[in-house]
């Protein structure tokens, strides 16, 4: 892989620890510096890696020792931070979604193209053995021609465990924009891009009560829909039914199922990297487990950044900006359809990312 990619992390909230552990264990990545609006939080995040510079954001952007900015800020700040990194001539890898809206995401991609830098974006969970083994099963024809898929995520809401859940309930949040990227990215990986959508949405209540941390008991306003459902029409002709909810207690539905003319697959939780893929063919009695046959083994958050580091110049990373933009466009189109009551054509498209063979980083 040559010299490691020097990573500067902006945003040291709850998710940063998972990324930092991945950066630490992969030889293709090196932690160069961190920054956060709260310097104390940044210092605490890198306490296990003494000597890591804690810098103001502007200094991190200007640091010639940083090759790529890992943008772990809240969704509302994703575009601003990404544009700062691009202006500094650095590659950027964002937590999902790429931006709070597709207009800002488009600005990021245009700026990156003009500057000749690369954009990557979570979720990279789809590069693990779970989704990639399911994709190989689809590509190998084990279910025949795909006809449909279902994707279900149901939870009472993140305010029960997150000490500062406000951003989940403002524009850029909600169950679709928060958890939908995992599911829609998986569906695009499995079945290809989406051409149109039709949706419906609702909001159970106007306030939420924080359930943990120093703000426990505080009420926060809800300004987004908290139950979103709809149908995605894939370019291939397959139809995916999506249910994303912060309004229900639990579900026994599989996270994702793919149905084809010859069989059906149960696909693992797309919020995880691994998991068992199950297949039932027409005429089979029950399900059988498929062995791991594709994807990065024992992957963690940040494997998409490592994949970007090994992507040849001029090629789109597997967890790339174009895919992330299409996923965001699909989700915004679904919300627009829910608001209007009419089907919406998805303006963007993307290439189905290259499959990942069975690899250990």
Automatic annotation (TrEMBL):
Q: Has UniProt tagged this entry with the keyword Oxidoreductase?
A: yes
The name under which this protein is listed is 1,5-anhydro-D-fructose reductase
Q: Which domain of life is it from?
A: Bacteria
Q: What residue range is the signal peptide?
A: none
UniProt KW Oxidoreductase keyword: yes
Record-linked InterPro entries:
Gfo/Idh/MocA-like_OxRdtase_N (IPR000683), Gfo/Idh/MocA_oxidrdct_glycsds (IPR050463), GFO_IDH_MocA-like_dom (IPR055170), NAD(P)-bd_dom_sf (IPR036291)
Provide the E.C. number(s) assigned to this enzyme: 1.1.1.292
Gfo/Idh/MocA-like oxidoreductase N-terminal domain residues are 5-120
Which keywords does UniProt give here? Answer: Oxidoreductase
Chain ranges of the GFO/IDH/MocA-like oxidoreductase domain = 132-266
Task: Mention one GO molecular function.
Answer: 1,5-anhydro-D-fructose reductase (1,5-anhydro-D-mannitol-forming) activity
């Amino acid at each position: 892989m040559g010299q490691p990619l020097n990573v500067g992390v902006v945003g040291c909230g709850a998710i940063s620890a998972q990324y930092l552990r991945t950066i630490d264990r992969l030889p293709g990545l090196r932690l160069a510096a961190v920054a956060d609006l709260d310097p104390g939080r940044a210092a605490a995040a890198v306490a296990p890696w003494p000597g890591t510079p804690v810098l103001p954001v502007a200094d991190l952007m200007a640091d010639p020792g940083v090759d790529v900015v890992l943008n772990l800020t809240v969704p509302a700040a994703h575009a601003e931070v990404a544009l700062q990194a691009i202006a500094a001539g650095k590659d950027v890898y964002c937590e999902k979604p790429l931006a709070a809206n597709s207009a800002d995401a488009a600005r990021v991609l245009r700026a990156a193209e003009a500057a000749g830098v690369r954009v990557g974006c979570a979720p990279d969970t789809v590069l693990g053995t779970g989704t990639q083994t399911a994709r190989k099963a689809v590509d190998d024809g084990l279910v025949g021609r795909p006809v449909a898929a279902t994707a279900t995520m149901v939870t009472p809401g993140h305010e029960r465990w997150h000490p500062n859940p406000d951003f989940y309930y403002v524009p850029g949040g909600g169950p679709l924009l928060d958890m939908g990227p995992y599911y829609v990215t998986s569906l695009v990986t499995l079945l290809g891009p989406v051409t149109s959508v039709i949706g419906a949405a609702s909001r159970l209540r106007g306030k939420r009560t924080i359930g943990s941390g120093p703000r426990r008991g505080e009420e926060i306003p809800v300004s987004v829909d908290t139950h979103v459902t709809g149908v995605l029409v894939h370019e291939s002709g397959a139809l995916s039914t999506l249910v994303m909810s912060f309004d229900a207690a639990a579900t026994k539905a599989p996270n994702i199922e793919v149905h084809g003319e010859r069989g059906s697959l149960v696909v693992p939780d797309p919020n995880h990297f691994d998991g068992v893929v199950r297949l039932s063919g027409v005429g089979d009695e029950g399900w059988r487990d498929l062995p791991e046959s594709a994807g990065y083994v024992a992957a963690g958050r940040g494997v998409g950044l490592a994949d970007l580091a090994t992507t040849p110049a001029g090629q789109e990373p597997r967890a790339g900006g174009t895919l992330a933009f299409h996923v965001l466009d699909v989700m915004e189109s679904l919300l627009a359809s829910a608001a209007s009551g009419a089907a919406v054509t998805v303006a963007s498209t993307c290439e189905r990312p290259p499959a990942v063979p069975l690899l250990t980083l």
